[in-house]
Amino acid sequence: MIEFGYFCLDGTTYGFVLYDGGDEGELTHYSRQGLDRRWDWGENGQYSFVITPDGNGRYYDFTNVPAGEFTKPSGIYKAYKR
């Protein structure tokens, strides 16, 4: 299980991703784009996870994608609110 979330501290919003259902993970850049929620992390935002209003989560790995080019999601998941 992978968990995504966000929190506010002193007026700044931070995102996070937790791996393997545990308490280890990464701080991320969190944003809301229209109705979508998005988390970006890694060197130069090489990983992204986007949750759309239909409850689908799409994972993107931009590691080998040239700048300015598009890619399909590496995985599509059903997202649940906790």
Secondary-structure map:
Blueprint: E1 3-9, E2 12-18, E3 25-33, E4 36-41, E5 47-51, E6 56-61, E7 75-78
Antiparallel strand pairs: 1-2, 2-3, 3-4, 4-5, 5-6, 6-7
In N-to-C order, the SSE pattern is EEEEEEE
Shape, principal axes of CA atoms:
globular
Secondary-structure class: mainly beta
Profile the largest sheet.
7 strands, antiparallel
Low-confidence stretches: none
Helix fraction, binned, reads under 10%
Overall pLDDT level: 93
What is the tally of beta strands? 7
The DSSP helix count reads 0
Could you give the order of strands across the largest sheet? 1-2-3-4-5-6-7
What proportion of the residues form beta strands (DSSP E)?
A: over 45%
Radius of gyration of CA atoms, rounded to a whole number: 13 Å
Short description:
The chain is an all-beta fold and 82 residues long.
